[in-house]
Amino acid sequence: MSERSEQAGQLTAKAEPSPLWEVFVRARRGLSHTHVGSLHAPDAELALRNARDLYTRRQEGVSIWVVPASAITASSPDEKDAFFDPAADKVYRHPTFYEVPDGVAHL
Amino acid sequence: MRGPFEFTLALGDDALIAAQRLAEWTTRAPEMEEDVALANIALDQLGAARLLLTYAGELEGAGRDEDALAFLRDDREFRNCLLVELPNGDFAVTMAKLFLLSAYQLPLYTALAGCADERLAAIGAKARKESAYHLDHAALWVKRLGDGTEESHRRMRDAVDQLWPYVAELFAANPAAPVDPATLRADFDATVDAVLAEATLTRPETGWAPAGGRDGVHTEHLSYLLAEMQVLHRAHPGARW
Amino acid sequence: MYGNDFSPGDAPGGGLLGEVEAAEAALRDAAERGRRGGAPGADGDLAEYFAQVVDADQKIEPRDWMPEAYRKTLIRQIAQHAHSEIIGMQPEGNWISRAPSLKRKAILLAKVQDEAGHGLYLYAAAETLGVSRDELVDLLLAGRQKYSSIFNYPTLTWADVGAIGWLVDGAAIVNQVPLCRCSYGPYARAMIRICKEESFHQRQGYEILHTLAHGTPAQKAMAQDAVDRWWYPSLAMFGPPDTDSTHSAQSMAWKIKRFSNDELRQRFVDMCVQQADILGLTIPDPDLRWNDERQSYDFTQPDYDELMRVISGDGPCNRQRTAHRRRAHAEGAWVREAATAYAAKRAQQRKEKVAA
């Protein structure tokens, strides 16, 4: 549109990528929170709202947790770590088993 | 003259034009997650517009449905406030606009939910929950942009300065209406002041106060918006879609 | 809510939705089943273990060992799929502002929004393979990763929105349903979610065309024109013929892909013929006819030279679509920076509070 956007269009100067958050949703009363996926957001407040828009599409009566993916320690029984890069310190994982830290975020 | 029909029409037009502007962001949002959020808000406004216009058509009793009201009126017949028809500008202008609009719509729909007209009360009860979410979303961004980087602060400050004059029209007294907008001003001010303070912004001085939307005297922008919105519907008179 | 005025009998895609549910059930069954061999030992043969999991129709999960080529293939495929969802918002998004009724406007907005959501699910699935979304988005913006060529065609009339729903989404569903059984867990799960949410997309398109085809002569002509223009590009969505497809054999062995391009294309054609009939529209192929021996329709192949030209960047809208995406990304940079700066400030304040 403008010169400005042409310049900004260069792929060089870029902000830090937003952290990754894992999203857990209680679909209905009586069920436990289940991992539904992940998303990017700069902070917890935005992560929670994005999770609502993205993973619940405005249903009422659900509860959402968002957990910084970096806060998850994964143990995976018949899987082995570090078989491929990036290793376990990178957080791009969908853990099969997880522990949710207490009081992370409630809705 | 500002009876239930005109009042309902004005609210419906506010929501419809706001939806049309918000939907322009589709595929253009600063982040893909925000694309989803803006579409949600546009869908809420559109949903409210459909309920309000349908009811306005019934109140009028001339056989006009939501589409006849949306697509077959000219700009002089629209009753929306000027604020919603202003161009989107950058993301700061859009968020400031949504913030001011929802800080007005929330107390309005809340009051409507308790009014004597059952249909309007039901619409108010549904829409106020949505408005609370819109306000929350917009406030969150007003704070982030106001207290983010130097550039974002400048943009958000400019946006608030640019839009503030259009606030006065929202609260023009209308004692005959189911809810008199003048009674909502204190609520609006409290909400806005708190968020602006947190966003390290100051409320602009009140001065120039353009108005006329409620009487069908709009800015130059509305006619273009309608030309685009109505073009296909008008090209096929009487067709079903 | 959308398009329910068609009974299940004549609604397209109903059977495919059943297949999605079957894939989901199969995924749960496989998770329940024990597997011969158990976990690999300390010096176990990892390749053998990987092959056993795939053979047993179980899912490979993010922390499992996998052949590097498997990982690369998946990243490429999932990323292209994600990019397609995001770029695919543009041709339909083009008509949101001009949708001819408020109901159609709401449906279209919801559909385009869904596509953004699906793009995000898929980027998340790709990220489990150790690549970041930012990297993938950069590859898209730099033109180094592709998206489905179909989105390089323009939407010229409102009927194109209907044709995209019926034909393009229809072809996409035929492609995607088998992916619900893909051997890579996060991709299979994302596809199950996407296919379920997409069930209304094809129906809304079909409904638009049905309404137009039974409307005024001008509306019917608009519908036929759209089908004429979208039919062959939709057939091309299944990719080059099997004889020319480079990735197919290995992807089939890894159970990333389950049917060949030509098998899926045939399946799509067979589905469309009767649906076109109900619409009262003509599929623009004079050689389309039932082959009793094959129990399938014979049809004219799409122009694969054209497909290659569009893939290599010379379709009607390649430049426009990419420029649009780049501009949105560039113009949003200051917003993303502000959000990051705000988050950092708040984190710092919390730290200071704790320290005090």
TrEMBL record, chain A:
This is 1,2-phenylacetyl-CoA epoxidase subunit B. InterPro entries: PaaB, PaaB_sf. It comes from Micromonospora deserti. It comes from the Bacteria. Gene3D superfamilies: Phenylacetic acid degradation B. Pfam families: PaaB.
Automatic annotation (TrEMBL), chain B:
It comes from the Bacteria. SUPFAM superfamilies: Ferritin-like. GO terms for biological process: phenylacetate catabolic process. Pfam families: PaaA_PaaC (PF05138). InterPro entries: Aromatic_CoA_ox/epox (IPR052703), Ferritin-like (IPR012347), Ferritin-like_SF (IPR009078), PaaA_PaaC (IPR007814), PaaC (IPR011882). GO terms for cellular component: cytosol. Signal peptide: none annotated. Transmembrane segments: none annotated. This is Phenylacetate-CoA oxygenase subunit PaaI. It comes from Micromonospora deserti. The lineage of its organism: Bacteria, Bacillati, Actinomycetota, Actinomycetes, Micromonosporales.
From TrEMBL, chain C:
It comes from the Bacteria. One of its GO terms (molecular function) is phenylacetyl-CoA 1,2-epoxidase activity. GO terms for cellular component: cytosol. InterPro entries: Aromatic_CoA_ox/epox, Ferritin-like, Ferritin-like_SF, PaaA, PaaA_PaaC. SUPFAM superfamilies: Ferritin-like (SSF47240). GO terms for biological process: phenylacetate catabolic process. PANTHER family: 1,2-PHENYLACETYL-COA EPOXIDASE, SUBUNIT A, PHENYLACETIC ACID DEGRADATION PROTEIN PAA. NCBIfam families: PA_CoA_Oxy1. This is 1,2-phenylacetyl-CoA epoxidase subunit A.
